[in-house]
Amino acid sequence: MRYRLSAEDQKFRDECREFLQNNIPQELRDRVASHKELGREDFVTTQRILNANGLAVPGWPAEWGGRNWTSLQHHIWREELAANDVLSPLDFNTSMFGPVLAAFGSQEQKERYLPATANLDIWWSQGFSEPEAGSDLASLKTTAVLDGDHWVVNGSKIWTTLGQYGDWMFALIRTDPNAPKPQAGISFMIMDMTTPGITVRPIELIDGSHEVNEVFFDNVRVPVENVIGEVNKGWTYAKFLLSNERDGIGAVGYSKRTLARAKAEASNLGLLQDPEISRRFVELENELLGVELTALRVAGGAREGEPDPVSSVLKLRGSRLSQEVTELIVDLSGPGGIASGAGDDSSLPEWVRSAVPHYLNERKVTIYGGSDEIQRTIISRTILGM
Amino acid sequence: MDFTLNEEQEALRETVEQLVSKQYRTTEDRRRVTTQTPGFNEELWQQLAELGAFGLPFAEEIGGAGAGPIEVGIVAEQLGRALAPEPFVETVVLAGGLIAELGTAEQKEGLLGGIIAGEFQVAFAMHARGSRWQAAASGVAAQQIGGGWSLNGLKEPVRGGGQAQTLLVSATTPWGSGVFLVAAGAAGMEARDYRTHDGGRAAGVTFANTSAVLLGEPGVDAAPTIARVFDRARLAYAFEMLGILEVGLEDTVDYLKTRKQFGVPLSSFQALQHRAAELYVALEVTRSTILWAGMVLEAELAGDASADGASAITHACLQANRAARLIGQDTLQMHGGIGMTAEYSIGQRLSRLTAIKRAIGDSNVFRERLLLRLEDYASVDPLA
Asked: Residue B383: inside a domain, yes or no?
């Protein structure tokens, strides 16, 4: 057992920090820090800087730009991105599609898509959920019928995050409606969003943001070579993808950073003299520490291609804590919290104005990536054997 | 950063587990032991001594194994798993720790040898009325009379105070707190022994002009040392809690899988599945924090000046207290009526957890400690 970073890992951490501070524009980091709505260009700028330095896809296989880092080094890297207010590389590209393609795609597909995915030349959107298939993802109904060398896709997807920027989509599509189990008739398919028959419609969220979309498919023709892996094996690849997604969500770096800022503001306002408020800071810091230590403890426990059930523990606890942090900030904002529509000429500071929209937006994290209820089912079934 | 036990630690865990589980196979085994004097299994106590478990935290030059808080924690966790009433933490970590830190060379040799060999019981009389969990002495005053010392006052409750051959008593002195040695049966000392709800023993001990020997040298306030040693005992107790909680959850999941109502196993109900999942999350987060605190304290004891054992232990105890409440209460609830019976161990686990919380301090104690330093740092960084 050892709780210290080795000299090597300490050096690694210093290098990460130095790189991010010297190479990512301060103005962009400031906007990330203040939870401003960020545009496509912000993601592209950040990811291309990282990619140019071989840092956009450290978790991929080495031949496609991965770094062979240890799990601990990945953890340190994610923490440093958060601590320095750097936008993480686009999850859809780097944590979701890229690893699936690298693991299950053909050589030709990898050569064609992986470099462009790493550099965010292609912005990937995720087409999983449907209006009638949320937590029960396997009941999805968007269907593809084979017609010569094309699949003809009909149906719709929903909650497509940042789909307004999407160049391509990876999607779960039902290719065998007669399979013995619903999971067995699904394929993992990619499609160019400019293909005729695809319509993207924005969904406005409770904080007024446009983050998610509905996507409709009307006789969309997808070439057969756009299936990843084997036809009807898509569910396996999706499970692989979802467990990677959950790991990322469980990371507490951004919550820690946000809580530290809130503590500084609360201190300036003298609010830490309030025993109830200071107590909430202590509790949240303690809980975040517990989740971070658990992440560090299980780092390296994930088995190839299988979801590590402990990632559900991290997702469950980590997402709830990130919500509690935003809730605390709303309470700190006082009556000023309603001034969400005020501009920068307001007398109220930015963090006060953004507190409530951020709190409202954060309600999503216990719903997406497998809701809390789904995570509890995973834990009780796979770990406790109930 | 590495949370895995090394080979020797694994071997220690397995050996202690075998010894303990052999003596405590059933709830009835434990009941029989706790209702008889001295309230623990003397055969197991000797076996643990022979294994070297009682020498773990002490330096090799005084007959110890020179091991650290992780090894101590491994023993405590196994005792917790079996809900064993052996006073390991009280005798070895708390009383033994005080002797090792404060005692003169002669005192260490005389007293620690007996503890390490499992030959005699030492109890620390710390708590007095209204003292909560403060390290500074209260309730008993020490007066220098001639070349010796005389104690007057009352300590209660004193874990194992009626069984110990020697009592360590914290008392006020002209220079602050001191710790004194009192032989059982000393003139003017009276111990009123009773059973505690968790199957243990405690006593109210009065001292009336009772002669005592100062542990260590005069003129130095012992309160900071008491606080430090008490913290180590708290961490060992946290490991014991972890063991209690592990088996509590295992037993509950097993029970839910076998108990049928409405014609189906209880484990088929989602309300119970999800509740059990939450308990698992709490257990794993608590385990991480306790193991980490063990590593931090180990580094501090090894001379790493930047390792803050006290803070890490505070975080671990806060987490352990919370998990103890959640898991202790919910596992009993999920057992239903049978959980209320003394025959089932699940209720005994809640009882023991509650007793440990009385020993280490409630969550408020630990939150207060963290509050004092809240503005000294931006965020808690375990990799700093």
From this structure: no
